[in-house]
Amino acid sequence: MLRRPLWAAAARPALERSPLVSITQVQRPVRRELEQVQVQLRELFRTPIPILNQVGGHVLATRGKKFRPTVLLLSAKLRGRLSADAIVAATVIEMVHAAALIHDDAVDKSGLRRGLPTVNGLWTDEMAIIMGDYLYAQAMATLVRHQLGHAMGVMARAVGEMSCGEALEFQYAYDPDVTEPQYEELIFAKTGSLIGAATEIGVGIGRTRDPRMLERYRRFGDHLGTAFQIVDDLFDYLADPQVTGKPVGSDLADGKITLPLIAALRDATERDRKTLRALALKKRWTPGQWDRLRTLIERAGGFAYARRRAQQIADQARALLAGEPRGVARQALERAIDYAVARDH
Amino acid sequence: MLRRPLWAAAARPALERSPLVSITQVQRPVRRELEQVQVQLRELFRTPIPILNQVGGHVLATRGKKFRPTVLLLSAKLRGRLSADAIVAATVIEMVHAAALIHDDAVDKSGLRRGLPTVNGLWTDEMAIIMGDYLYAQAMATLVRHQLGHAMGVMARAVGEMSCGEALEFQYAYDPDVTEPQYEELIFAKTGSLIGAATEIGVGIGRTRDPRMLERYRRFGDHLGTAFQIVDDLFDYLADPQVTGKPVGSDLADGKITLPLIAALRDATERDRKTLRALALKKRWTPGQWDRLRTLIERAGGFAYARRRAQQIADQARALLAGEPRGVARQALERAIDYAVARDH
Predict the structure, then answer these.
(1) Is residue A16 over pLDDT 60?
(2) Residue B317: predicted pLDDT
(3) How confident is the model over A235-274, as pLDDT tens digits?
(4) Is B134 an interface residue toward A (CB < 8 Å)?
(5) What CATH class does A23-325 carry?
(6) A164 touches chain B (CB under 8 A)
(7) CA dihedral of residues B145, B148, B149, B155 (deg, nearest 10)
(8) What's the per-residue H, E or C state across chain B?
(9) What is the pLDDT of residues B89-104, one digit of tens each?
(10) Residue A151 to chain B, least CA–CA distance (Å)
(11) Is residue A8 scored above 50 in pLDDT?
(12) Segment B226-237 mean pLDDT
């Protein structure tokens, strides 16, 4: 008899709220450019060092949905700036994202990402450090070569913010007293900042420099990325591991206290809070304990709260686009907002 | 009774050849600028994240001799370009060097550097990855902020080359068939490239762009750094651990096959080669085994060969300075060459 998977009970309410949006719909207006990004990635991952080529080949073969290049290209297109430079910048942002994930997986000791082995899983932590550094350096060198000065500054800022995010994650690990503002600061730094960099760089391509427009696009991306991460964090409790390629509870086991739990610990009854706290600080759960943990979060409204908050932030992102020219690019960016909050992986 | 330390027997011949040169002599003409570098480092290491400040404070307190900022500043001074920009660039190169060492120690699992605990030793490998990434990003952001475009390109290239060096080290680890050209490629990438970046950036400050001059200074630094590393690698066999803060044989135990051993494996008699090979592939040695290993290298002329090769490369570095204006800066750079080959740590 098949065991009912741990995540099954609560998965429905999380994913039923709105029909799923597919990334393909979001990417349609820049599909051709994304293919060019893929070609450039293959070129930039080629190195004179055999071992780096092996590792790089694996990284390239297991790349994901290219969400960051997509929103960069759409932001450029929305302002009529979809040039060769935009494609270079989109390629570079994907390299930076890949470098960050490789280091992140080594930091988290994750052996799998989207069900596929990570660099540290297949080789070693050492190789992950080296490969990430190599990609960061290649990313910067590519921007210098193409004289994309604005992109360089934005990218350096985002990489710094991402390491602050990782440091905060380290600092708040296994701390059940972490607050919602601390959590939001952390996920903004970890995820929002690079997506904010993507949209700001996209609109900044072409050398016109209206600081208010740059700022508005950056904030749009920051919000989009933050909403995206809240939903990602819901998956740790509610998603189907067959779809995400990641077992439920693995973030919590790593000490990541995310919004559903933060809200539940805040809003639960005194008695539930105590049980929840004790359960949250374990690193392994029996199916029964995990069920109980999830039920307590649900009862305190933790999942509903996190979904509401993601939606709120997504709405703020939408409002930041209100004055932009209508057309396929704007429509696709609005689709990207829907996608951030209504996806199953 | 005191035990005779393992390194004592051969230490004298290595270090007696020329009188030791102190780094203070090299640094005299840019002493004040180096103090400003220290002030800027303190500012740039300040972050909004408490844990990063703790780690950064430790890194700053245990920084070394500032060899790279020194040669950058001297190269700038030699061409009359010792401006505020030169100090910023010198600060940035020290940050990049610190980032590289932090990642390098995590890659090598070294708990000590110069006798002091490393970031991975005091915290974790994870924190070392995060801190290194943060410093790389701050370094790039600082160059962007000061619009040091040339420095940015050179720095990105050097960081890429350093990761190639780390990858080669990974690839050649515990391989007793590694050749001298492979070794030189590796140490150029690992050490030469950043010192070459320092001298090229130094001379490039001030926006005059004679490509042949940039190239000559880069090659000067490449040679200086490569000679420096050969001598560093001799220390693994011959130095006083009380002075270097590092036990003898720790590089070899990590699988680093360096020039004295490469030359000895090549030049030894058939019989000695076999013994040497077997001894070289161990990861721990009894004092007797270590003595035997060192005697065999000595007998095959490995130490003498490595010293000769370092001197040859240092002489090539000196020749590259031949046409430069005479004065305190040139004298100090020549002192830097002497220092690279005649130091005890």
Answers:
(1) no
(2) 98
(3) 999 988 777 777 888 899 999 999 999 999 999 999 999 9
(4) yes
(5) mainly alpha
(6) yes
(7) -100
(8) CCCCCCCHHHHHHHHHCCCCCCHHHHHHHHHHHHHHHHHHHHHHCCCCCHHHHHHHHHHHHCCCCCHHHHHHHHHHHHCCCCCHHHHHHHHHHHHHHHHHHHHHHHHHCCCEECCEECHHHHCCHHHHHHHHHHHHHHHHHHHHHCCCHHHHHHHHHHHHHHHHHHHHHHHHCCCCCCCHHHHHHHHHHHHHHHHHHHHHHHHHCCCCCCHHHHHHHHHHHHHHHHHHHHHHHHHHHHCCHHHHCCCCCHHHHCCCCCHHHHHHHHHCCHHHHHHHHHHHCCCCCCHHHHHHHHHHHHHCCHHHHHHHHHHHHHHHHHHHCCCCCCCHHHHHHHHHHHHHHCCCC
(9) 999 999 999 999 999 8
(10) 10
(11) no
(12) 96
Q: Would an 8 Å CB–CB cutoff place A8 in contact with chain B?
A: no
Strand B116-117 to B112-113 pairing:
antiparallel
Of the partner residues B130, B138, B160, the one whose CB lies closest to the CB of residue A170: B130
- Is ipTM over 0.95? no
Contacts of A168 in chain B (CB under 8 A): 49, 51
Residue A17: pLDDT over 60: no
User: What is d(CA A303, CA A264) in angstroms, rounded to the nearest whole number?
Assistant: 8
Tell which residue, A189, A238, A169, A335, has the closest CA to residue A11: A238
pLDDT at residue B221, rounded to an integer: 98
Tokens of A88: 């270079």
Judging by DSSP bridges, how do beta strands A116-117 and A112-113 pair with one another?
A: antiparallel
Q: Is A47 on the interface with B (CB under 8 A)?
A: yes
| Averaged pLDDT, A2-20 | 45
- pLDDT over 90 for what percent of chain B? 72
Q: Of A179-188, B40-49, B119-128, B245-254, where does the model show the most confidence?
A: A179-188
pLDDT digits (tens, 9 = 90+) for A35-61: 999 999 999 998 889 989 888 888 888
Q: Is B133 on the interface with A (CB under 8 A)?
A: yes
* pLDDT at B17 (0 to 100): 52
Percentage of chain B lying above the pLDDT 70 cut: 94
Domain ranges of chain A: 23-325
- Asked if B152's CB is within 8 angstroms of A140's CB, the reply is yes
How many angstroms separate the CA of residue A161 from the nearest CA in chain B? Answer: 8
Over residues B242-259, mean pLDDT: 88
Partner B contacted by A174 (CB < 8 A): no
Of B51, B106, B155, the CB nearest to A129: B106
Q: How far is A90 from chain B (nearest CA, A)?
A: 18
**A-B contacts at Cβ under 8 angstroms:** 140
Instruction: Work out the minimum CA distance from B140 to partner chain A, whole angstroms.
Output: 6
User: For residue A184, what are its two tokens?
Assistant: 């939001």
**Any chain A CB within 8 A of the CB of B170?**
yes
Residue A207 pLDDT grade (very low, low, confident, very high; cuts 50, 70, 90):
low
Task: Assess B95–A contact: CB distance below 8 Å, yes or no.
Answer: no
Model confidence, pTM: 0.90
Which of B95, B130, B188 has the highest number of chain A CBs within 10 A, making it the mutation to test binding with A?
B130
**Interface probe, candidates B105, B125, B140, chain A, greatest A C-beta count within 10 A:** B140
* Assigned token pair, B307: 């010293």
Contact between B170 and A103 using a beta-carbon 8 Å cutoff: no
